[in-house]
């Protein structure tokens, strides 16, 4: 097993029969979903799955567990959310949103009774953002105004995310654009989340406060370490 697989496998122990599970986006969370699907098939475990993106929903169908998918409005609770991270520091502060699903991820993850992060050791940084860009979901109408406001207030550079086919901006499941903000320093205070969200046109920010994270499972070459 690699680090991603070890972290995902360790997270399975927190899922029990009858639970409502928030299923995160990203490569490590995808490994977890595949392992969860295997356990459901082998043990007949009954769970409901709340996806954080349309990609997760499609993957659930592909894995044969599409019938267990529920939208957020269809459930009255989320027992546990299992999600990945682009970067995580010792205080469990996160950078998320590399796949563009930051808004739905934050809603599901924060609403869950328990929010568990899974990542390999390559995602651990001394301080966020750790050189990673900070995704900011913005209304398409306002993207340039937000870009200029972010750069004026905090310095650095905010770049409009362009699709891999170079035909135009990436569009989120919510119909919005994403700015990738490169902060001028290696460390940013989590309070910047509030400042960025105060800019008109900003929908959500890919800074996740460590106080919301119940625990983080970090997969290594030899096992896992737990941050809580």
Low-confidence region ranges = none
Domain count: the total is 2
Strand order of the largest sheet: 2-1-3-6-12-13
Order of helices and strands: HEHEHEEEHEEHEEHEEEE
Q: How far apart, in Å, are the first and last alpha carbons?
A: 23 Å
Largest sheet: 6 strands, mixed
Q: Do you know the CATH architecture of the largest domain? A: 3-Layer(aba) Sandwich
| CATH topology type of the largest domain | Rossmann fold
Structural class: alpha/beta
Describe this structure in words.
The protein is built from 6 helices and 13 strands. With 228 residues, it is an alpha/beta fold. A 6-stranded mixed beta sheet has the order 2-1-3-6-12-13, sandwiched between helices. It has a 4-stranded antiparallel beta sheet with strand order 8-9-7-10. The longest helix has 17 residues, at 27-43. The two termini are 23 Å apart. The model has no long low-confidence stretch (mean pLDDT 97). The chain has helices at 3-11, 27-43, 54-62, 102-111, 143-154, 192-197, and strands at residues 20-23, 48-51, 80-83, 87-88, 94-95, 114-120, 134-138, 157-160, 177-182, 202-205, 207-208, 215-219, 224-227.
Map the helices and strands:
Elements: H1 3-11, E1 20-23, H2 27-43, E2 48-51, H3 54-62, E3 80-83, E4 87-88, E5 94-95, H4 102-111, E6 114-120, E7 134-138, H5 143-154, E8 157-160, E9 177-182, H6 192-197, E10 202-205, E11 207-208, E12 215-219, E13 224-227
């Amino acid at each position: 097993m690699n680090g991603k697989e070890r972290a995902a496998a360790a997270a399975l122990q927190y899922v029990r029969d009858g639970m409502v599970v928030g299923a995160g986006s990203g490569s490590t969370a995808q490994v977890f979903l595949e392992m969860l699907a295997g356990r459901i098939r082998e043990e007949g475990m009954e769970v409901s799955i709340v996806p954080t993106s349309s990609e997760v929903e499609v993957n659930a169908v592909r894995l044969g567990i599409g019938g267990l998918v529920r939208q957020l409005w269809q459930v009255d609770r989320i027992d546990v959310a299992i999600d990945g991270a682009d970067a995580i520091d010792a205080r469990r502060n996160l950078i998320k949103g590399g796949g563009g699903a930051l808004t739905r991820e934050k809603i599901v993850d924060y609403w869950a009774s328990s929010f568990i992060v899974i990542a390999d050791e390559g995602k651990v940084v001394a301080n966020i953002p750790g050189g990673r860009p900070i995704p900011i979901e913005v209304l398409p109408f306002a993207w340039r105004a937000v870009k200029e406001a972010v750069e004026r207030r905090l310095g650095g550079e905010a770049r409009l995310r362009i699709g891999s086919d170079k035909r135009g901006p990436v569009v989120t499941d919510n119909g919005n654009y994403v700015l990738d903000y490169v902060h001028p320093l290696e460390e940013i205070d989590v309070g910047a989340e509030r400042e960025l969200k105060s800019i008109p046109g900003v929908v959500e920010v890919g800074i996740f406060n460590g106080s919301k994270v119940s625990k983080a499972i970090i997969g290594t070459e030899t096992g896992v370490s737990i941050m809580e």
